[in-house]
Amino acid sequence: MSKKTAFAYLDESGDLGWKLKAPYGNGGSSRHFAIAIAIGQQNAFRRFGKIITQLHKVQNWSSPKEKKWGAVGSQARTTFCQLAAVELARNAELKVLVGVYHKKMAPDFVRIRDVRAEYPDLAETDLLKLEAKYKGRTHLVYAMMVAELLATYLPRELNYLSYCPDDLNEGQRTLEQILIYRLLALDRRSLELSHVNRESAMQGGLDFADMVAGAVWESFERKDRTYIDILEQQIVVHEFNAPPADLAAIKYTEPFNQSTVRIPAVHVP
């Protein structure tokens, strides 16, 4: 019996800053952080790069350099979503998972705070204690989201999973360790995990994940559903720390069903 393998590209949209008092784009951080995981079983993962190649041809982009969601116009964004939706609809070997983190609902210990600006008159010893408490654990947010998405939706019969993340702010070790703990220790999967370093050959797949993350992020951060309306039936969107007001909208589905999954108050352990 042949082994079942998969390759996943990871990229994100939004930022993991915590300046939530000022407006986003005017001294403040984004209120949402999105991670897209584009998974291709067996050799199907190559299709993600092909979609980006198609996009370059349609847009008449002569440069082979990476194209990020934030740097392309609305026409290119729409074209990408249309190309991606068609490919995902006809290829069952491709699955796209997107996690959205509601930062306003994050527990205090995850956030980074400028305690010296908040408490200018506090004694140095007390400031050091507060800095240690609020130094931020944003790398855990990234790793936790990826691990929970894979634990929830990755087929259990999979034997090998290789994954290629875009540049990680906190390095790869935290992600590797949390994936091992969540998928192998807790889920007790018979799964071999392999981290693949970013190379030029991976750029198309990473661009695909970046653009899907951007399309979903737009719908949460800017309330612009122009792009997610094209993709929504072909991807899974999983919310972390959804506000309590959204509880009535929660619906749970089986892995890889075409729907939006809203899971409130999933905190970093």
Characteristic terms for this protein:
269 residues; alpha/beta; disordered C terminus; DUF3800; DUF3800 domain-containing protein
What would you note in describing this structure?
- The chain is α/β, with parallel strands linked by helices and 269 residues long.
- The chain has a single domain (5-263), classed as Nucleotidyltransferase, domain 5.
- The protein is built from eight helices and seven strands, in the order E-E-H-H-E-H-H-H-E-H-E-H-H-E-E.
- The chain has helices at 46-59, 74-90, 115-118, 124-133, 138-153, 173-186, 203-221, 228-231; strands at residues 5-14, 32-41, 94-102, 160-165, 192-195, 236-240, 259-263.
- Strands 5-4-1-2-3-6-7 form a seven-stranded mixed beta sheet, sandwiched between helices.
- Strand 4 (160-165), helix 6 (173-186) and strand 5 form a beta-alpha-beta unit.
- The radius of gyration is 19 Å and the shape is globular.
- Residues 247-269 have low confidence and may be disordered.
What do we call the CATH homologous superfamily? Answer: Ribonuclease H-like superfamily/Ribonuclease H
What is the rounded Rg? Answer: 19 Å
Structural class: alpha/beta
Strand content: 15-25%
Widest sheet, order of strands:
5-4-1-2-3-6-7
Number of helices: 8
Largest sheet: 7 strands, mixed
Mean pLDDT: 86
Unreliable spans are 247-269
Give me the CATH architecture, please.
2-Layer Sandwich
Give the total of beta strands. Answer: 7
Label the overall shape: globular
Q: Kindly identify the CATH topology.
A: Nucleotidyltransferase, domain 5
Tally of individual domains: 1
- Kindly provide the name of the CATH class: Alpha Beta
Q: How far apart, in Å, are the first and last alpha carbons?
A: 38 Å
The helix fraction, in percent, is 25-40%
